[in-house]
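About this split. The held-out portion is used to measure sequence recovery: a designer receives only the structure tokens and must propose an amino acid at every position. Recovery is the fraction of positions where the proposal matches the reference. Here is one held-out target exactly as it appears in the evaluation file.
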């Protein structure tokens, strides 16, 4: 077994990996087949870093197949090291992956299905498909990535979301996330941190299989804007809220936590009261605890 590993290592290091630079077209084709759309690459440089094949790929782009002038994704440069899992699975897995200043177009169609840079994701499986792959990467670091979201389901409008910083670390079934994000639906930068495990028999991309802690800090959420693009239990006419706190998950179920919530000028249309509900100002501290199956 050790001999097989050594032979594979030497073959990849001295035979296969150096040829990647000379076979850019084949590399583009392999990537295109893997993601299901046409991928173009400007330049590839490969090297070796400790035990891992390393790379630098410049000017990665995906264009609309019907309208080739329309760019759905552009990344000036991606650097990283390939995981040895790529050899056994014949799919790209990364020991670490880093890029910045990316532009990605995301579309939600009238039926609620998603298109991420030309990659089709059905609404019922989008989270599992992409999430499972994402949480299989050892380390991902993204800065200043702009997501242009075209929403055809609700308003047929375009929204720009900026990922200021995303750090993802995964090891076996354990994952850690640190996210700082700007969006049109809240003021200042929102922060989300999570550390959890997923079930060995479940999907890493399905939060219902998560056990761990998730924390958040989001300021001045515009409820009117949120209700225009997401389904909410109450019909929100106006108002802002600020929320900060954390919760614990046990296989996707709430298992304790606390939240500080403040809101102002809240205005809901609630059928239960047969008239609008107005709240001028609210300050609250919520704690949730469980004892056995009792919440």
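Reference sequence for scoring:
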């Amino acid at each position: 077994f050790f001999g097989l590993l050594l032979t594979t290592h030497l073959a990849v290091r001295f035979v296969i990996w150096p040829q990647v630079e000379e076979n850019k077209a084949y590399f583009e084709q392999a990537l295109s087949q893997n993601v299901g759309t046409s991928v173009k690459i400007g330049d590839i440089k490969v090297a070796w870093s400790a035990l891992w094949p390393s790379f630098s790929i410049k000017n990665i782009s995906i264009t609309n197949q019907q309208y080739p002038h329309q760019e759905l994704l552009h990344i000036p440069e991606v650097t990283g090291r390939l995981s040895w899992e790529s050899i056994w699975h014949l799919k790209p897995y990364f020991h670490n992956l880093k890029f910045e200043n990316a532009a990605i177009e995301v579309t939600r169609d009238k039926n609620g299905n998603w298109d991420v840079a030309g990659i089709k994701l059905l609404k019922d499986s989008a989270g599992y498909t992409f999430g499972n792959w994402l949480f299989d990467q050892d380390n991902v670091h993204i800065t200043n990535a702009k997501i242009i979201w075209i929403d055809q389901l609700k308003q047929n409008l375009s929204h720009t979301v900026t990922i200021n910083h995303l750090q993802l670390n995964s090891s076996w079934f354990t994952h850690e996330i640190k996210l700082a994000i700007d969006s049109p639906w809240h003021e200042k930068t929102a922060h989300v941190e999570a550390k959890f495990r997923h079930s060995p028999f479940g999907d890493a991309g399905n939060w219902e299989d998560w056990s761990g802690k998730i924390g958040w800090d989001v300021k001045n959420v515009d409820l009117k804007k949120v209700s225009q693009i997401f389904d909410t239990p109450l019909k929100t006419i106006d108002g802002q809220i600020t929320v900060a706190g954390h919760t614990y998950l046990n296989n996707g179920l709430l298992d304790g936590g606390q939240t500080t919530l403040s809101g102002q000028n809240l205005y809901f249309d609630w059928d239960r009261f047969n008239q609008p509900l107005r709240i001028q100002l609210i300050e609250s501290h919520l704690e949730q605890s469980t004892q056995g199956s009792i919440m």
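Annotator remark: The helical segments are 2-16, 24-35, 85-89, 126-134, 223-229.
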